[in-house]
Each structure stands twice: as C-alpha cells, then as structure tokens.
Amino acid sequence: MQIYGPYRVSSTQPNSPAQRAQPQKPAETAGKTTAAPTDQLDLSSGASGVNRLNATQIAGSGEIRIDRVADIRRQIADGSYDTGLSCEPTAFVAWSFDLAAMTANPYRESSWDVPPEATTRICDLLADWVLTGGPEIILRRSTFKFAVADGSTASGILAGAIESDAMAGAICYHDSEPRGRAIAMIAGGETLLQVVRGPESWHKRTSLLREAMTALPGLLDQAFVRPALRTAVGWNSLDNALALSGITEADVRYNKHLLDRWVPDAHGIQVLRDAHLTKASDLTDWNVTDLGHGRHLVEATDLAPWYQEPFPDPDTLTKARQDFGPMLLTKAVIAEHPPPWR
To answer: Where are the alpha helices (DSSP H) in 53-98?
Structure first.
C-alpha cells in the first residue's frame, strides 16, 4: 500500500475488470430477439448483499483496516510516519580540492581530486565517526555494498574506493533497533554525514554533525547542516528537500571553484572561510568561533528554529539570507566567475 498523503490511501494493485466502471448501454428495444443463446448469472439475495456492505463491515472482514488507515494518517500529520523519504539533518562537507587537477581532467564528475594526504586524514575521520553508529557495518564502493566484520579496515577501503571510483560510503547501525550513522563521498570532494533516526534529540544530532565538521577545518572549503533525504549520496540532494534561493543544486555542482568564497544558502550551523565572512552583510546575530587555518564556525544564536523541526522556520531562513547577503551564490556571481574549464 502506498501512502500519498494524510488524506488519500491508494493500492498499488490495478483495478480488476469487475472494479472498473462500465458505461451503461441503452435499453434494448422490447421485442428484439437474437438467435444466439445468452448467458445469465442469477445472484441470491444473500450474495447481492455484498455490494451493500458498509465500511465497518468491510474492515471487519479484513479487506481494509480502517483503524490502521486512521493511525497512518495520524503519523503522517505529526511527522512520525516513515515513508522511506524521511528527512534527516545532514552535514554537507566540501573538502578543498586540487583545482588544477580538476581543470585538467575532462571527466571532472568522475574524479575525487582531493590530494592523497588529505584524503587519508579525511577517511580516518569519517571512519571513526560512522563506526560509532553501531556494530553492523555496510561499506559501499561505487554502487556495490558489502558487509564487513572488522571496522579497522573501513578507512582504507573508503580511501581506495574514493580514489579509484570517486564514490564511497558507509552505514553503521544497530540490528536490534532502527538507528545508526551514514556517510557518503563522491567526486569533487563532496561528502555527506547523517545521524539516522534513533532516540537522539535534535541537539544531540546537530552536535554530532558539528563535531565531524570542525575536526579538520584546514581541509575544508565549507560545510553546513541542512535537511536532506535519508541516505542521500551526494550534493545533488542539496535542494531535494529544501529549495535554494535563486539557484539550483546544478549551479553549485558545476561551479565548485566558487565554494571557497560563496555559499549556496544560509544555515543554522556552518564552517566558512575568511573569504566568505568578508562578504557577509551583518553577523551580529550569529556566534562566530575561530577554528584556525582561516576557518570559522558560524552558528545562529538560537538553533531551535533551524533544527527542532524537519525544516527551518521560513522567517528565520529569510532573515539569515539577508544577514549573509553578498556571501550567497547567485546566477550573477556564476556568470561573472565562470569555471576555468569552460
């Protein structure tokens, strides 16, 4: 059964011919006869009564669980129903990449382009962080997923996969309960981190993401916490759950050379560079912490409107975009600063 919303339930099974409405034929002229024999089905009065069953009777017979439908509608309304498209607070991380290598590579979407020594440190960090999610370990190399028993091998497998296939990931979880952590790495230095479900409060989830984002500030172009679909695998999910302002994720994906100076959007938590902050309109309502290496943790003074609910409060987001001002990536900025490979 597919749930499309709090007010409609639809079965994936197609209607049978008996269920489809049939057009009525005009009444035959009295006295018209035919030479061919006709088939006829006579229903007893008891069988005919099936068509007159009410909703309660149908539910009682097991055809439709009216109480279950009502419960699912309630869960959808209060946001607790797991549709498989649930959103999680997600750390989007853009690692600093080798622009010359990316420019020289005609297949930029298929290359990691982060220096090897930085990649080793990044994979060590990501492996340590994700392994805390639970004892069950699933690693991903390109599109292939496989379980491993020894977590000590995770960092090396991730590094080898991202260098050779430009796509790697991991999810570690508890088999006895639906919670864990997930990471995804993809071409051009893109990384995502998620704390998946579990009993953690939004405070705890954002704290765990912040911890990873601030661990290697010197290797970052930028990072931020933003809602994304569960187990998203790349920055192409940047605007799947929450729209950007005036641009799309493709504008970001094909202009990675601008991420060390402009941001795709304002967020409650982000790590930015000196070049970002010099463009800001007004950061008086923000907490700015120096992380060294010309990077800064920039957080809203009140994070509840950003992360207490699945999506940020619209007024809070609008005000933040005004505070960031010229720091935001726009179509005009992209036109003025085209990538060197064009």
So the answer is: 55-61, 66-78
* Alpha carbon distance 205, 237 (integer Å): 19
Q: Measuring CA to CA, which residue among 80, 78, 112, 81 is closest to residue 98?
A: 112
How do residues 214-226 score in pLDDT, each as one tens digit?
Answer: 999 999 999 999 9
Model pTM score = 0.76
- Nearest Cα neighbor of 268 from 221, 217, 215, 209 is 209
d(CA 230, CA 84) in angstroms, rounded, equals: 8
CB of 203 within 8 A of CB of 186?
no
* Distances from the Cα of 2 to the Cα of 84, 219, 241, 283, 328, angstroms: 11, 44, 20, 45, 39
Q: Which residue, chain included where needed, has tokens 């619209």?
A: 314
User: What digits encode the pLDDT tens for the residues 115-158?
Assistant: 999 999 999 999 999 999 999 999 999 989 999 999 999 999 99
Phi-psi region of 325 (alpha: psi -120 to 50; beta: other; left: phi over 0): left
CA diameter of the chain: 98
Q: In DSSP terms, which residues pair with 292 in a beta bridge?
A: 295
Please name the amino acid found at residue 132. Answer: T
